[in-house]
Structures are given as structure tokens and as C-alpha cells.
Amino acid sequence: MSTQSNVTNQLIPHYSDGPKSSAEQRLLYKVYALFEPEKLPAYLKKTSDTPKKSATPELLELIHELTSNYSTLTASTKAEVEKYISFKRVGNSIKVEYSTDLEG
């Protein structure tokens, strides 16, 4: 199983049970899964309330996937992603900033 598939299954465990979505929509679902799960469609919401110890591996994979595909995303998807994660080019690098809600 590829890393991308593994992360998708971890973030969105019942992904294959629902309707097919575009690659861009799947990226947006991954963003929602990490930052605002209540925005996910019902068929993608987790059925368990058990919190994960860490979402760092999923976040790193998501950031890699977003930076690799950022130029192909539509303006509306970029605007939605940037509510949670910002990308700024600094020389030959990309600076990524995000925040998480530590109260939950």
C-alpha cells in the first residue's frame, strides 16, 4: 500500500464506502479531517471518539501533498486550504504555517 493511500485510510477510514471524488476534493477532505472534521460529509466522519495520540505523520504527508500539487489547485480550493495552512515561498523553500486548536 502506498503512503498516500495509507494516510487517506487513516484520515478518512471509510473513504471507499462513499461516492468517488476528485483528487482535489480528496485533498480538501484531508485538510478537513485534520483541522475541522465537522466539515466532512457524513460518510467520511469517524465513528469513534477515541482521539489519536498524534496527527503529525498525517499532517506532514498532507503538507507534502499540498506543496507538490498546489499550483494545480483551483482558486477556491486554495482559499479554503489557506484558512488552515498558509504557504509562502522564501527563496528556494516554502514556509508552511498552521495552527491547531489545543482545547479539544
Strand composition percent: 5-15%
Instruction: Report how far apart the termini are.
Output: 32 Å
Tell me how many strands there are.
Answer: 2
Mean pLDDT reading: 76
What's the total helix number? 4
Largest sheet: 2 strands, antiparallel
What's the helix-strand series? Answer: HHHHEE
Which strand order do you get reading across the main beta sheet?
1-2
Explain what the structure shows:
- With 104 residues, the protein is α+β, with helices and mostly antiparallel strands.
- It has one domain.
- It has helices at residues 3-11, 23-35, 56-69, 75-81, and strands at 85-90, 93-98.
- The protein has a two-stranded antiparallel sheet with strand order 1-2.
- A hairpin with a 2-residue loop joins strand 1 and strand 2 (93-98).
- Helix 1 crosses helix 3 and helix 2 runs antiparallel to helix 3.
- The radius of gyration is 14 Å and the shape is globular.
